[in-house]
């Protein structure tokens, strides 16, 4: 009797263990199969035993090579993905530059099975990657160079025979700083000279252009040898050490042997502090003492040191002759700021020098005068003018030479003159709203000049002219700006004032036509008002005489009970009216034997002379000339009526009325 285990054992001897964990086949398929059924059964068994997915890759490659991964499926598969260290590689199947890091690869796909699609994974695969070239090693020749000599650095590595066609390039570093021109195809770098400060750590890098593989060497310390200095010598110029005071002394210190950086120092016998110190990479150095003086005479020596200790030179003597020293020019002036007319005195003095000494005085390199003295100083006096501003100097001369002093600046200050104030636009009249430019300028005066602008002795503002000349002040004109304008100038030497200039302000030009029209209209209305007033007065007088006994109350359109009428027109003809406007003039009219009081109003236009000092106002009256007013009675208990009220009472009651709108035809009733 046959069984599945016997069949697998016959054809697949290593499958016994697998069969123990597999489910049994149906009796119909596996028990004593017929010969025609055996291939199908074998195929099924192969599917169960063999891997459904297999990842294919080269077994051994060099680092940097491109590797193509293939996922082989046994059956229908879809959605194939590749993984490196369990991370999906998307979407490429090609590894362009592999590295030696023992990565593990596998693939996955959806496979069709008996029960549908199922995800399957391949076994993990590790690709053996060989090293393309070993890390380079830095070699220096010579290993321990002498300071100042050349050194050759070599970055040593090699390629396998299978990749001998790959090109390498190299780069050298000192600490973290690249040397030379950077990357180069040559594995060697030559340093022309090395010094003790070049004794640092060096390293190199090597890389392939295609594929890009870069490796670096270990750091290597470079040791530089130094030779101590010897045979130190001091030389002076002039060679004999004979100098004239004021000349320059040159000290040259040199060594016969020594490498690297040498520190040179210069000394004068009897002093602790050195005259100078220089550190440089050379066998000699110079120190120049400018304008030597008598105290610089003595014996000198120098020292040289390149870390191994200072080595001294022999002593050299320096002697001096004394010419005149550089003179000092001082200015004696009666005040801090010199003014025109002041007498100043120039003093020129040289502290040392062989007599006699000739002194010369200069103004802008032009000789003012000279004086010869056996010792001490010389003086020169003169009276200042405007032209004396500038640079002054002096010189001292004896048989050994000439010395010049520093320049001294004398600024002659000129007080400001009386300034002149002008208007722009020019003229003595201006219009309200115009912008007036006040310009103030003093013809003389040292800058800076501060200008002040005044209106009727009230300060409007100030402006500064830092470089001289004049200054301007802009003012937007109003009606009250009519009057006197002036300015002042000051440069610290006193204030000067200008003459006063009178300016008259008139109304804006655009209102002249309107004012004329209003004036004409007001005049016509005044004439008509007078005529209407006369007619009304006659009418009411006639009516009151005829109806007086029957009147017991006030009419419906007449003013209420009133006090005595008063005149509201201007009682002071000498006082100027309101500037430039149509002036209403009031006149109270009281018909006889009646309580009715009305006011007659007319308008007048003032002349140009009366309106020059005030802004213009415009009003267009379209109401009738006659306005009725209800005048309040100053004495309500007075039964005597208005006949008992005097002129003084009329003036007191001038303001005790109020206008009542009334239609003119109502008066006819």
From TrEMBL:
SUPFAM superfamilies given in the database record: Immunoglobulin
Gene3D superfamilies on file: Immunoglobulins
InterPro entries in the cross-refs: Ig-like_dom, Ig-like_dom_sf, Ig-like_fold, Ig_Fc_receptor, Ig_sub, Ig_sub2, Immunoglobulin_dom
Keyword Endoplasmic reticulum: no
Keywords: Disulfide bond, Immunoglobulin domain, Membrane, Signal, Transmembrane, Transmembrane helix
Region of interest (Disordered), residue spans: 543-589, 603-649
Pfam families xrefs: ig, Ig_2, Ig_3
Comp. bias intervals (Basic and acidic residues): 618-636
CDD domains linked to this entry: Ig
TM segment ranges: 514-537
Biased composition (Polar residues): 548-557, 603-614
Ranges for domain Ig-like: 228-319, 327-410, 419-503
Domain of life: Eukaryota
Protein name: Fc receptor-like protein 3 isoform X2
Gene name per UniProt: LOC110146462
């Amino acid at each position: 009797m046959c069984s599945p285990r016997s069949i697998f054992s016959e054809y697949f001897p290593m499958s016994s263990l697998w069969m123990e964990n597999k489910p049994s086949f149906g009796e119909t398929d596996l028990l004593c199969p017929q010969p025609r059924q055996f291939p199908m059964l074998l195929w099924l068994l192969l599917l169960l035993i063999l891997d459904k997915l297999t990842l294919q890759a080269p077994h051994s490659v060099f680092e940097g090579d491109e590797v193509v991964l293939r996922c082989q499926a046994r059956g229908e598969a879809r959605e194939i993905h590749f993984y490196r260290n369990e991370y999906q590689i998307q979407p490429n199947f090609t590894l362009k530059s592999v590295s030696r890091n023992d990565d593990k690869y596998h693939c996955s796909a959806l496979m069709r099975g008996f029960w549908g699609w199922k995800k399957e994974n391949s076994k993990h695969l590790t690709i053996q990657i060989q090293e393309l070239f070993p890390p380079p090693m830095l070699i220096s020749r010579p290993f321990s160079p002498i300071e100042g000599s050349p050194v050759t650095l070599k970055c040593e590595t090699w390629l396998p025979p299978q990749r001998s066609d790959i090109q390498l390039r190299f780069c050298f570093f000192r600490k973290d700083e690249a040397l030379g021109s950077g990357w180069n195809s040559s594995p060697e770098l030559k340093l022309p000279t090395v010094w003790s400060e070049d004794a640092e750590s060096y390293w190199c890098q090597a890389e392939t252009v295609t594929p890009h593989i870069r490796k670096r060497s270990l750091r290597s310390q470079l040791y530089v040898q130094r030779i101590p200095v010897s045979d130190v010598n001091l030389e002076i110029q002039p060679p004999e050490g004979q100098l004239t005071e004021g000349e320059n002394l040159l000290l040259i210190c040199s060594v016969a042997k020594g490498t690297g950086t040498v520190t040179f120092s210069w000394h004068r016998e009897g002093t602790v502090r050195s005259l100078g110190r220089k550190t440089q990479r050379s066998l000699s150095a110079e120190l120049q003492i400018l304008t030597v003086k008598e105290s610089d005479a003595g014996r000198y020596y120098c020292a040289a040191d390149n870390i191994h200790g200072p080595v001294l030179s022999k002593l050299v003597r320096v002697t001096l002759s004394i010419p005149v020293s550089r003179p000092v020019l001082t200015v004696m002036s009666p005040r801090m700021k010199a003014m025109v007319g002041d007498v100043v005195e120039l003093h020129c003095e040289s502290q040392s020098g062989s007599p006699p000494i000739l002194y010369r005085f200069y103004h802008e390199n032009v000789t003012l005068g000279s004086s010869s003295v056996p010792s001490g100083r010389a003086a020169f006096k003169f009276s200042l003018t405007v032209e004396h501003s500038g640079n002054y100097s002096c010189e001292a001369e004896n048989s050994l030479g000439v010395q010049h002093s520093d320049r001294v600046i004398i600024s002659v200050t000129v007080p400001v003159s009386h300034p002149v104030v002008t208007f722009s636009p020019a003229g003595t009249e201006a219009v309200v709203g115009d912008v007036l430019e006040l310009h103030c300028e003093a013809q003389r005066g040292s800058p800076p000049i501060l200008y002040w602008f005044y209106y009727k002795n009230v300060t409007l503002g100030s402006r500064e002219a830092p470089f001289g000349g004049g200054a301007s002040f802009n003012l937007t004109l109003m009606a009250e700006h009519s009057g006197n304008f002036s300015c002042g100038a000051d440069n610290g030497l006193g204030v000067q004032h200008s003459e006063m200039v009178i300016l008259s302000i008139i109304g804006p030009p655009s209102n002249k036509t309107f004012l004329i029209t209003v004036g004409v209209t007001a005049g016509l209305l005044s004439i008509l008002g007078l005529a209407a007033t006369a007619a009304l007065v006659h009418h009411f007088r006639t009516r009151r005489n005829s109806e007086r006994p029957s009147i017991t109350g006030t009419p419906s359109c007449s003013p209420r009970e009133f006090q005595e009428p008063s005149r509201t027109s201007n009682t002071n003809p000498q006082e100027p009216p309101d500037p430039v406007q149509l002036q209403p003039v009031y006149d109270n009219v009281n018909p006889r034997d009646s309580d009715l009081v009305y006011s007659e109003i007319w308008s007048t236009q003032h002349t140009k002379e009366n309106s020059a000092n005030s802004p213009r106002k415009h009003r267009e009256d379209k109401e009738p000339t006659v306005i009725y007013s209800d005048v309040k009675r100053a004495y309500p208990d007075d039964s005597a009526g208005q006949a008992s009220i005097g002129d003084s009472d009329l003036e007191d009651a001038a303001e005790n009325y109020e206008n009542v709108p009334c239609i003119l035809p109502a008066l006819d009733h």
